[in-house]
């Protein structure tokens, strides 16, 4: 099957990939936007998890081609398994998944919980079994398996600099309308060393400044999109409202995690809007109208000491019940409904891509090792990335001024937000 993709051009799926892509459990990804609520800021960001999954499959094959060019023998059967695993890497995603799993910690991460094992027990597992791919694809996706794939093959599907990253950086930038990209030269830097997928920063005993520039360019693009798109405060506010709506519906028995595998972005919001639970209904309907809560209180790494950030993450990110008590206390002091106050405290930010294995004149090491020629630039990017952490209290517009004072008193730090910046 030949597909025309706006990012990679023509993508040809082999028969096994076509059969997997046509399964209902994969086709449902067409209804889940890749960037969640980012379209409220970037109207073109309507691309889906399905689009991305096909793109990741294409990039995985590009990496395999690059490895063959570097001298690695890769069988066609293993390449097929890698392509299918890449196509399935997001199959367990639910609507607004990163927001629900990573930001508000309502459910296990899509790649760490039991969803994939459940899916392998159904039509997906049976189809993979018939294709002779069940065990190896399961292993590539992290399931216990009797068949082992090389570690470098798993790195293509879920490593630091992997097919997932190299698709979504281009795709997210394009559909957000941002003129940022990386060069295809990056593919010529891939190699296998010690059973790992590595980026070659040296060749013939000499450092390769061009390869170092390419990998730094990729990480700069990752930072740029995080700053401009992934952590944009409007996207964060809308996602936080949806998350609290889901949390409220779950607490009242109107929704369970397994329901989310049957829903897409629109049907989830519709179900929340009709669930009969006042707080969940109000938040879902407001989000659908883009009638969003405003930033009443904001602090960042500039004003919150590292030890305080760690404490807050433990209290208000890792513990939904503690966060809910704080929201209830805010609501009481501000005279608001519980649903009108949303506390957003993300995990501490880190750039995992900076830990990618690279080959230097000293051998295989991590990109952010101090002895690496790129350490200074990588370290600076990591510091900037960590500084993107923000703690928010979202409230209705009329309560913004009071919320800043109440939160400053309760949390012991003044808001960094100016009075006209909500």
From TrEMBL:
Choose any GO biological process term that the UniProt entry carries and state it.
dGTP catabolic process
Organism lineage: Bacteria, Pseudomonadati, Pseudomonadota, Betaproteobacteria, Burkholderiales
Identify the InterPro entries for this entry. Answer: dGTPase-like, HD/PDEase_dom, HD_assoc_2, HD_domain
Question: Where is the chain membrane-spanning?
Answer: none
Tell me which residues make up the HD/PDEase domain.
45-178
State the name under which the record lists this protein.
HD domain-containing protein
The protein's GO terms of the molecular function aspect are: dGTPase activity
Task: Report the domain of life of the source organism.
Answer: Bacteria
Q: Which SMART domains match?
A: HDc
């Amino acid at each position: 099957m030949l597909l025309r993709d706006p990012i990679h051009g023509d993508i040809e799926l082999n028969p096994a990939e076509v059969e997997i892509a046509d399964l209902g459990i994969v086709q449902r990804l067409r209804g889940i936007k890749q960037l969640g609520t980012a379209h409220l800021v970037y109207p073109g960001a309507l691309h889906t998890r399905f689009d991305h999954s096909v793109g990741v499959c294409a990039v995985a094959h590009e990496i395999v081609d690059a490895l063959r060019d570097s001298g690695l023998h890769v069988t066609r059967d293993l390449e097929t398994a890698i392509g299918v695993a890449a196509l399935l890497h997001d199959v367990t995603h639910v609507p607004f998944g990163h927001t629900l799993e990573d930001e508000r910690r309502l459910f296990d991460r899509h790649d760490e919980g039991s969803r994939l094992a459940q899916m392998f027990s159904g039509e997906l597992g049976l189809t993979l079994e018939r294709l002779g791919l069940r065990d190896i694809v399961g292993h590539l996706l992290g399931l216990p398996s009797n068949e082992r794939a090389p570690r470098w093959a798993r790195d293509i599907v879920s490593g630091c600099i992997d097919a997932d990253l190299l698709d979504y950086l281009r795709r997210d930038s394009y559909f957000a309308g941002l003129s940022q990209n990386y060069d295809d030269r990056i593919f010529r830097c891939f190699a296998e060393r010690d059973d790992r997928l590595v980026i070659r920063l040296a060749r013939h005993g000499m450092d390769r400044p061009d390869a170092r520039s390419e990998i730094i360019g990729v990480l700069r693009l990752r930072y740029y999109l995080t700053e401009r798109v992934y952590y944009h405060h409007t996207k964060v506010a809308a996602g936080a409202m949806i998350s609290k709506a889901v949390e409220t519906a779950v607490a009242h028995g109107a929704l369970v995690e397994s329901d989310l595998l049957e829903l897409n972005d629109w049907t989830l919001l519709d179900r929340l809007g009709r669930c009969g639970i006042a707080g969940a209904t109000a938040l879902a309907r407001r989000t659908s109208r883009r009638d969003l809560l405003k930033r009443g209180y904001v602090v960042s790494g500039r004003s919150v000491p590292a030890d305080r950030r760690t404490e807050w993450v433990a209290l208000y990110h890792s513990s939904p019940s503690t966060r809910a008590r704080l929201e209830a206390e805010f609501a009481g002091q501000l005279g608001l409904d519980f649903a009108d106050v949303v506390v957003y405290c993300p995990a501490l930010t880190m750039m995992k891509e900076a830990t990618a294995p690279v080959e230097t004149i000293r051998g295989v090491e991590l990109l952010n090792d101090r002895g690496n020629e790129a350490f200074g630039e990588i370290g600076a990017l990591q510091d900037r990335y960590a500084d993107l952490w923000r703690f928010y209290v979202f409230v209705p517009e009329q309560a913004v001024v009071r919320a800043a004072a109440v939160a400053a008193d309760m949390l012991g730090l003044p808001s960094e937000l100016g009075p006209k910046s909500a």
